[in-house]
Design brief:
The chain has 104 residues and is mostly helical. The chain is 49% helix and 0% strand. The protein contains 3 helices and no strands. The radius of gyration is 14 Å and the shape is globular.
């Protein structure tokens, strides 16, 4: 995976997140999907699929964070699940997402 792409994508995913407090999909607050396209969802999903396939990767080597690699990896699994969920909603043109829509 291209290091610059990985750096940018991970930074975007964790910038405002409290990684340690997010343990389930319902803990995660979905972002505004109005700026997304199917192509952008698929690109970000493919990057996170690579991340999930490489749990041994040292994510902190990209830039320093206050989280351990294990904490980041757990968060990335939830983030990936959320991306898939949002893509599905986007394809159905369901742009308003309520907490009750989010699976356990």
């Amino acid at each position: 995976m291209d290091k610059k792409t990985l750096l940018y994508t991970i930074h975007e995913a964790i910038y405002y997140a409290n990684v340690k407090s997010i343990k389930t999909h319902k803990d995660y607050t979905s972002k505004d999907i109005s700026k997304y396209t199917i192509k952008s969802f698929k690109k970000e999903i493919s990057i996170f699929e690579w991340i999930l396939a490489h749990p041994e990767y040292d994510f902190n080597s990209l830039f320093p964070t206050r989280y351990t690699n294990k904490e980041l990896y757990v968060y990335f699994k939830i983030y990936h699940k959320d991306l898939l969920f949002m893509l599905n909603k986007f394809k159905k043109r369901e742009y308003i997402i309520t907490i009750s829509d989010i699976p356990e």
